Here is the input.
Amino acid sequence: MSKLSLLYIVKLTLLVVFFAFILDKIVYYGINEVAKKVYTGRIGKVNQFLNVKNDLDFIVFGSSRANHHINTEKIHTKSFNMGLDATEIAFAATLIKNLPQDKSQLVLLHFSAQSCFIDSYDGNDINKLSMFLHQNQIVKNEMTTLNKNSPIQKFFFSQVYNGYFFGIVKNYFISKYNFRPYSGYDPIMVSSQQKKIFQNQLKSLKKNECKNNLAINDIYLKYIREIRDFCKENNKKLIFFTSPIYEDNCKNDDRKIKNILENEDITYWNYTDFFESDKSLKNWKDNTHLSHIGAEIFTKEIHNRLKENKLLPE
Here is the structure.
């Protein structure tokens, strides 16, 4: 191949890359304008939280066991449940760091014993915030720290919407609910079929191995400390909690969590055995998730405890 031909190919390649870069930015900013107006679904819930966070006094963070278990409206008028299914501490910590500085707020964070002692946890749940990578500096910082910000995403912005585009468009044109009165709490209405499934699961439920030598995941410990420090520095009252479990045959993780959080000077409420004296299945969807009936009982307990300890915002 002649030098002239090679030079032509290089120039053509650069031209294609340049136009791909320009097209990518047009596509990205177009989708972004639509996404900003979405207030239902996962991205919609985060959009709503980011818009109202400065006016909130009480916020719940965590996974599905925060999302489906605490009706914040029953606790405080200026509140929001920012729990989201299939998320862990990286996702929650990133959103907590988006709270306003030096504003008095109460933060209730669900803590997962199932993940904090797993060596393989790498903060991958933060990818659920990837669509905010080029809009939110805190999200960008956290994704970069966890090495979740790929080189392609740095160059081609529209990649952050891979897998989300059709959901965004759908929620833009057809909202799942009226977001204005929505406070983030998503109750679980259990069908008769789901009740039967849970009953059958209990019959064959195997006891998990109860490990003695539990070591907390480094990423979890890092975020525990960062959340604690952020809250202390910015006038936030912080409470970690574990939610009820129908059948919990090992308490070693509970004791370990208690010791870890006490050593880090963090208030911890363990509700694993909250329904120990009431084994009615009407309170449950499965072994770790409450039905809307159980969630209302649990919400009342959280409200009363906050009130008794004078922790509720005025």
User: Anything to note?
Assistant: Residues 57-124+186-308 form a domain with the Rossmann fold fold (CATH 3.40.50.1110). The CA atoms of residues 194 and 200 lie 10 Å apart. Residues 3-35 form the longest helix (33 residues).
